[in-house]
Amino acid sequence: MKSENERRVVITGAGIISAIGQTLPDFRLNLFEGVCGIKAIDLFDTAGYTCSLGGQIDGENLKEQLLPRQTKRISRCDLLGLIAAREAVLNARIDLGQVDTERMGVIMGGGAGGMLSWETFRRDLWQGRQKHNASRVLASAPCTLTDLVANHYGISGIRSTITTACSSSANAIGYGYDLIRSGDVDLVVTGGSEALSELTFAGFNSLKVMSPEPCRPFDRHRRGLSLGEGAGIIILEEYTHALERGAAMLAEMAGYAVNADAYHMTSPDPEGLGMFRVMSSALARANIETERVDYINAHGTATKINDPMEAQAIQRLFGKENLERITVSSTKSMIGHCLGASGAIEAIATILALNQQAAPPTVHLDEPDPLCKLNHVAHLFRKQKIRVAMSNSFAFGGNNTSLVFKRVNRE
Fold this sequence. Notes:
A hairpin with a 3-residue loop joins strand 14 and strand 15 (399-406). The strands form 3 sheets. The protein has an 11-stranded mixed sheet, sandwiched between helices. A two-stranded antiparallel ribbon has the order 2-3. A two-stranded antiparallel ribbon has the order 11-13. The chain has helices at 24-33, 68-71, 76-92, 115-126, 134-138, 144-153, 168-181, 198-206, 239-244, 273-286, 306-318, 320-323, 332-335, 342-356; strands at residues 9-17, 39-40, 53-54, 104-109, 159-162, 187-194, 230-238, 251-260, 293-297, 327-329, 358-359, 375-376, 382-383, 388-395, 399-406. It has 14 helices and 15 strands. It folds into 2 domains: 9-244, 3-Layer(aba) Sandwich (Peroxisomal Thiolase, Chain A, domain 1), CATH 3.40.47.10; 256-406, Thiolase/Chalcone synthase (Peroxisomal Thiolase, Chain A, domain 1), CATH 3.40.47. 33% of the residues lie in helices and 19% in strands. By secondary structure, it is of the alpha/beta class.
């Protein structure tokens, strides 16, 4: 077996469902067209809240995409995750009869995604319409998607669920990368899923960080974030394994890093030191110089505090000599903040940027904040050469993750 330094990790498949596309081709088209999927929410009553908008996924017939036995008594969160996982496996053209499923893993990230099912169960229980039901309780557990995917595809290798707030699925991807590099597995189905729920909606409203209009990251007049929902699943695969089965390679994962601010439960370090260090460490682990980075998919939540802190960290790491060249955008402006799923969804957006050799835009960015002085891609996508791209996830509690992707060099 190859050593850790020799085992390269490539992305051979991706699946996604979001407010701007329920398949990878639709998401790609709308991502680069700058389509905004943030609109009025009808999953629950938003009366009384300062905000009524979110990146809600349309469609009452989502369950029809899967087999009936897959959708029985599962949460909306797990349904979205299964739809994305199905597309990712098909996209990777994995013949489960020809691969060693003991050397496959399933690593998922999530937060409060199944809470919508719990809220429905609670109301039914209180109103006498529902007796105690174990399956309804399981539907709200963060680990359920991991088990559903592993069981459906017969994957008997390592499985794990990571919950680190908004960096959950980014950390899941990082752990999957480590498992392949270490030689524990050859293939990993990884990513995350999240569904809108009144609990998270009310919680963010109570923090007074929700915008009454679609969010506008890095804009001088930004008023806060917009929540969203969706799922992003990618297939990580050891390079030689992918080569031998003739798999298409969307990108190579060059490295990643994780750290913690150890500062505050909801506010980032005001100097952005944790953000700076995690990006610096990710590039160091990937053995990539700052001069080779061409695009950054920012965490970009559109809150008053987060945006300038992230901009400051980018400025400090890359310096003036690179800032005019490196493009930066936040796809949350189109899909909202998908919490535990955001890292995986934005990783897919970053991989698509590499594939399309174009940076997706930040929509609604009319007047960039002087405190966020970066090379913004506003309103329209920008064609450019992208050799290396980064995806940032900076979560509550200072849970910071930065993923590094590059174009595949077939040696």
